[in-house]
Design brief:
472 residues
Amino acid sequence: MIPTLLIVLVVLVAAGAFWFMTQGKKELPSGETDAPKLPEPKGAGAAKSDAAPKGEKVEAAPAKAEPARASVKPEARSSVKPPSPTPEAPPVAPSAEATEAAPPSSAPAAEAPAAEAPAAESTPEASAPVREAQPEPAAAQAEVAEVAKAEPEAEPKPRARREKRDLTALKKGLDQTRTGWMSKLLNVFRGKKELDPALLEEIEETLLTGDVGAAATRRLLDSLKQKLDRKDLADTEMVWDVLRDDAHEILAVGAPPFAQPPAEGPLVILMVGVNGAGKTTTIAKMAGRYKEAGRSVLLAAGDTFRAAAVQQLEMWGKRVGVPVHKGKETAKPSSVVFETVQRAVNEKIDVVIADTAGRLQNKAPLMEELRKIRDACNKALPGAPHEILLVLDATTGQNAISQAREFRETLDVTGVVLTKLDGTARGGVILAVADEFKLPVRFIGVGEKSDDLRPFDADDFVDALFARGDDA
């Protein structure tokens, strides 16, 4: 009997002790259990903080000072807790290793947001270093972006591909000139390695026979002689390059861009030239270009002297889909152009191209009529005409220089259109006109198709004209 009682008492005491120990742990606050245990893993905590990323070393200091958390008031801890309490959090608190592991990594803070008040307290401190560290890579990226922006400026020109395509068509249009006097000029250099006075004489003769003109020929030869005297030229290859560069300098007269639209009203272009130079065809091709660019165009039939001139312009207008304004049969050219400009102003037309009667440069009364047309344009729209283009036939050679001289004395010619370059072997007249009158070449005609009226580009023209090797 007595052993049985003893066994019962021992069981009761053990159960009571077990109940006491388990209930005591649950009632103790997490802060009180943490306080005595934190000093033990001091070395381990230091090792963990050393392994932590550089940006979070600041968080390791609060972990070492955690023994003082016993003095932290429970109210302060509860105030940090999120609005939704989690009852399962207190059992996790006894593990001191969890409190040590939370500071080194930012991810556990998201796994146990309410488990440890210190994690919530250190969140602002932990986020601050991260936000300060972010601008550094951003600044580095900005510097890289600036360098990347600066580098594309030194990229090879995309123009090389455009030149190759354009030069093919241009070379074909200049075939007569390139196989004419330019071929002769190339033969002067072929097979020669040294320079001698006879070479300069051959160059001069070839330039003159190509209608380059006396003034332009003298300018090119003077440049060669100066460089020879300074011993800047060593072989014929260098002479060819000098001729090429000087020709480009002659053609690039530094004129402003062509046909800048005025502040108010339409752009008015007045076309002048002798009979047969190709004015009407050039007008139609220009009108087609403007229409393709989305601009409205109105043509003025100002050539009232030549039979069937108005009908010819009307025919071209129908082909390109552009209206033509014409006057009565006995109307003066100046009145027709005046009415056309007024109509363009009222109807808000973008471009007006006015045809005029072809006339010889030595006929004073007809040249005087051009002044009246110019004044009529200005009366209808102050500042008009904005461009006066002289159309020259390249096949006329040196006669084109005489025409340019007379028309410039009558009008303020702003540019030249050189037509029929595909039909002459002496296209050097373009150098003569540009050099003597300093007039920019605006368009060149190298065929009968609409695309064969090309805006003039000095680089492309010289490259096509002075092409060597297989291209030549």
